[in-house]
Amino acid sequence: MILPKEPVKKIDDVYTALVQANQKDHDIWFEYVFLSWQWWFCVLLSIIPWILWWKYRKKESTHRLLYGAFFIMFISMSLDSFGAELGYWDYRYEPLPFLPSFVPWDLCLLPITFLIFMQIKPNISPILKAIFYSFFCTLIGEPFFEWLGFYQLLKWNHLFSFPIHFLIFLIGYFLVTGKNFEELKQR
């Protein structure tokens, strides 16, 4: 079914306004963010944790651990993008201006933290690990980046993130420890 002309015109107008707003945002990013100390900090946070994990990982478990990490990345980036688009929070110093999510957090720090929690003391209860992971992400990580000015809460409270991080960790945990993989060994 073809839409009548009026809704199509409204959609086109909104799209044009979005493109113009994005262009203004990109211009500001290139002028004030790109190559600033905040940008370099984000770049380092996006690379160094992966290098360190790669060096110290349990090599026999690499593939299945990455399976869980990719799940964490996908869910985190999706939820982060939804929250930013819905106006719950806003990022000020993105390493890339084209994504409505915070790359160092979603693609690096959250999955690396998950991987560390998975490898340390693999016999500890997943519920307990999920609580520690949620506590670390919600009450230490998020306030730290807010304090640095990297992001601003608009219609969100850090505590709302706790059950989300808890569930994400548990799902990732069960993906990694599923029967399709060999038993996880302590490092």
Task: Write up what this structure looks like.
With 187 residues, the chain is mainly alpha-helical. A two-stranded antiparallel ribbon has the order 1-2. Helix 5 crosses helix 6.
List the main descriptive attributes of the protein structure presented here.
globular, 70% helix, 187 residues, mainly alpha, two-stranded antiparallel ribbon
Short description:
With 187 residues, the protein is mostly helical.
Note the topology.
Blueprint: H1 5-33, H2 37-56, H3 62-85, E1 89-91, H4 103-119, H5 126-147, E2 151-153, H6 158-176
Antiparallel strand pairs: 1-2
Strand content: under 5%
What's the number of structural domains?
1
General shape: globular
Structure class: mainly alpha
Number of discrete helical segments: 6
Number of strands: 2
- Main sheet? 2 strands, antiparallel
What value does the average pLDDT take?
88
Major sheet: arrangement of strands: 1-2
